[in-house]
Amino acid sequence: MADDCFAHPRLAAVYDPLHSDRADLDAYLGMAEEFGARRVLDIGCGTGVFALLLAGRGIEVVGVDPARASLDVARAKPGGGRVRWIHGDATGLPPLCADLATMTGNVAQAITDPHVWRETLRGVREALRPGGRLVFETRDPARRGWQEWTREDSCHVAEVPGVGTVEYRVELTEVRGPLVTFRQSYAFAADGQVLTSDSTVRFRERAEVERDLLAHGYELEEVRDAPDRPGREFVFVARRP
């Protein structure tokens, strides 16, 4: 089930204005070009920002996401008809023979259940052609990035066309082993409504991810640094033999 920040129609509609800096996607665009990908599977595509960037370059794209409200936003964007949108997750994909599968942003960490994580890796492998690659990022738990998730540091105010002023904050609520839970709040000035969305992410050690990939039939090509967050994230590049 998708978190409210993606699944609630009012929150999905303001996601892009509140997260307008997507410099993190530049590295993924570069890898799509580096690997010569002509067919890409965008897992956890959300409101379709990355999928539409790829489609604008003439790449065939399949975007999959469990949040229908986010997919509705994606479909309504210019060029939305050029992407094949699938409501669901990566555990039961149709045959795709993709050259590249991606999980950008927090997607990999948002898959917290170990069984679902294993089934995701299996499903993605089956959706890739032989020689196709899976690329995703995950934060290095040693950096304890969750300590920076405070209401004061995260406050962001955006003026959203047709909506008005929206104030956004993030607050850490629980750390339990590798699981970190936080609450996002959205205050709409137009009518005073405040909506919240609780999310949990899993911080995996590099060795744990490497073992999972090997156990599910991938070859680990390399682990890169994230250009937008140097020293803070692992970017895994795995290949289906």
Automatic annotation (TrEMBL):
<keyword id="KW-0489">Methyltransferase</keyword>
<keyword id="KW-0949">S-adenosyl-L-methionine</keyword>
<dbReference type="GO" id="GO:0032259">
    <property type="term" value="P:methylation"/>
</dbReference>
<dbReference type="InterPro" id="IPR029063">
    <property type="entry name" value="SAM-dependent_MTases_sf"/>
</dbReference>
<protein>
    <submittedName>
        <fullName>Class I SAM-dependent methyltransferase</fullName>
        <ecNumber>2.1.1.222</ecNumber>
        <ecNumber>2.1.1.64</ecNumber>
    </submittedName>
</protein>
<dbReference type="InterPro" id="IPR041698">
    <property type="entry name" value="Methyltransf_25"/>
</dbReference>
<dbReference type="GO" id="GO:0061542">
    <property type="term" value="F:3-demethylubiquinol 3-O-methyltransferase activity"/>
</dbReference>
<dbReference type="GO" id="GO:0102208">
    <property type="term" value="F:2-polyprenyl-6-hydroxyphenol methylase activity"/>
</dbReference>
<feature type="domain" description="Methyltransferase">
    <location>
        <begin position="40"/>
        <end position="132"/>
    </location>
</feature>
<keyword id="KW-0808">Transferase</keyword>
<dbReference type="Pfam" id="PF13649">
    <property type="entry name" value="Methyltransf_25"/>
</dbReference>
